[in-house]
Design a protein that fits this description.
This protein is an alpha/beta fold. It has 2 domains: about 5-45 and about 100-205, Ribosomal Protein L4, Chain: A (3-Layer(aba) Sandwich), CATH 3.40.1370; about 50-90, no CATH class. It has 7 helices and 6 strands, in the order ββαααβαβαβαβα. The chain has helices at about 20-25, 30-45, 105-120, 135-145, 160-165, 180-185, 195-205, and strands at about 5, 15-20, 125, 150-155, 170-175, 190-195. Strands 2-1-3-6-4-5 form a 6-stranded mixed beta sheet. Helix 5 links the parallel strand 4 and strand 5 (about 170-175). The protein is elongated, with a radius of gyration of 27 Å. The two termini are about 20 Å apart.
Amino acid sequence: MPKVAVSNSKNEQVGEIELNDDIFNVPIKSHLVHEVVTMQLAKRRGGTASTKGRSEVRASGRKPWRQKGTGRARAGTRSSPLWRGGGVIFGPTPRDFTPKVNKKIRRQALKIALTSKCKEKHMVVLDGFDLEEVKTKAIVDLLQVFDMDSVLMVTPERNDILEKSARNVPHTKVLCPEGLNVYDILKHRNLLLIKDAVPKIEAALLR
């Protein structure tokens, strides 16, 4: 099992933690990561573009003019796509762009993302970090101590104070283990794990 140093908020080593090989030391398979990230980005698409076909537009059902004898092209309805205000031919309708990705693939891609951060030495385990009040400067000072400019912080449980403190810090995001995902891990250069969050991540990915 890989061992990682546990640091305090002053970047001083205060211990070590053993990480599970089945999560933080798995073979890197980039095609699985690509598949899951594509799914996540597609899921964010609204898919709300919508147009009306000739049967949906509001128009009179009366024939505009008689079939023959006028010298004009024959017309049967004002909702024809050829007319201004008529329906749209093959226009977009609301749809879901999310491709189906197997749960096992999603879970394996998350393990690969965590493994890559661990192997690239871009993962830090922090013994704890609690704030009594919303304070952006505390987050900025913490990132300066660890020399991080892009970081995803994972806390053991939902922490509104910490989330609000990091909200205005560029390229910084706070998540709990339940919200951990491949895209956010790869989007941020560094991964900052609160020590108590590690067992919860392992428990969720090993079940």
